[in-house]
């Protein structure tokens, strides 16, 4: 009996030690992840002289609105192509549109691959995985030439419509459905006379809500921060059509306007929508990623 109690006590101590070690590692990872954001926000409240002279600081100052005013003065005098409200509008149009198209059509594709048993289902899924392996940079030259021939440069259409094809999102949603989507409920809906589209929109989407939320966050962040494709398509560089990352790039790449405080303020303003969207949908991330990562 005493040996059994000693063993139980030893196991309890090992569990506590492991829990403590895991907690320490998680706290360190959280600090490493949040530290750059903290430095960014703090530097946005400091002057350029303070940043260049004193280096890193974790204590915010009171110059945030002065830095924002500097950005507005530069924009008013046409020294930079920057207008936060225009940037929010343009990036918002692209990010929200692409996010809706990505999660909707990827969800429908994953639903079809799981629910329907057709002849070439495995081949279709293999092709989707193969497309996922191709980097965007490999196809960018051909994509630009194709859009140029169609006369779609300086347009948001090439930045929005291709979001319908998102192989990585299809892969994630298919894994999610394989692990947590009961096919019996689809059969029951068909017996009750429910059409296929109605089944997907009234049953499929609500049951896949965590997966939709997770992929919506990832898609929104990726498209909001996307600089590569818009800079390739929006060739005229008109202020009224530039996205916010493109506007920020015009500031930090301008050697004549060497104001670190204003630069950090511009970057901070650009990440506000991403932070808001993340906090709104963050409760779905753990559940969605955990279920979507289950192996078949």
Helix and strand topology:
Layout: H1 2-44, H2 48-54, H3 64-76, H4 84-115, H5 121-132, H6 136-150, H7 157-160, H8 167-180, H9 183-191, H10 196-207, H11 209-224, H12 228-233, H13 244-252, H14 260-281, H15 285-292
3D architecture notes:
This protein has 15 helices and no strands. It has 296 residues and is mainly α. Helix 4 crosses helix 8 (167-180).
- Give the structural class: mainly alpha
Compute the separation of the termini in Å.
43 Å
Provide the β-strand percentage band: under 5%
The main β sheet shows up as: none
Q: What global shape is seen?
A: flat
Short structural description:
With 296 residues, this protein is mainly alpha-helical. Helix content is 75%, strand content 0%. The radius of gyration is 25 Å and the shape is flat.
Features:
296 residues; mainly alpha; disordered C terminus
């Amino acid at each position: 009996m005493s040996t059994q109690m000693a063993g139980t006590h030893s196991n309890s101590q090992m569990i506590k030690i492991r829990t403590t070690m895991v907690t320490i590692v998680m706290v360190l990872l959280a600090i490493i992840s949040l530290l750059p954001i903290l430095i960014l926000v703090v530097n946005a409240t400091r002057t350029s002289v303070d940043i260049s002279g004193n280096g890193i600081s974790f204590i915010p100052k009171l110059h945030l609105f002065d830095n924002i005013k500097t950005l507005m003065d530069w924009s008013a005098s046409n020294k930079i192509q920057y207008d936060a409200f225009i940037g929010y509008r343009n990036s918002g149009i692209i990010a929200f549109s692409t996010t809706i198209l990505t999660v909707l059509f990827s969800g429908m594709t994953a639903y079809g691959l799981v629910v329907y048993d057709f002849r070439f289902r495995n081949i279709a899924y293999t092709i989707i995985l193969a497309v996922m392996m191709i980097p965007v940079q490999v196809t960018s030259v051909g994509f630009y030439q194709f859009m140029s021939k169609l006369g779609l440069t300086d347009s948001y259409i090439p930045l929005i419509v291709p979001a319908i094809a998102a192989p990585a999102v299809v892969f994630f949603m298919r894994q999610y459905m394989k692990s947590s989507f009961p096919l019996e409920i689809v059969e029951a809906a068909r017996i009750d006379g429910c059409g296929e589209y109605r089944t997907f929109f009234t049953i499929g989407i609500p049951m896949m809500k965590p997966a939709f939320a997770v992929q919506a966050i990832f898609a929104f962040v990726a498209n909001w921060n996307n600089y590569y494709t818009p800079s390739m398509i929006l060739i005229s560089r008109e202020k009224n059509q530039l996205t916010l990352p493109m506007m920020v790039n015009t500031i930090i790449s301008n050697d004549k306007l060497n104001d670190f405080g204003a630069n950090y303020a511009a970057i901070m303003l650009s990440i506000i929508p991403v932070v808001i969207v993340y906090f709104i949908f963050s409760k779905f991330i753990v559940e969605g990623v955990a279920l979507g990562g289950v192996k078949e």
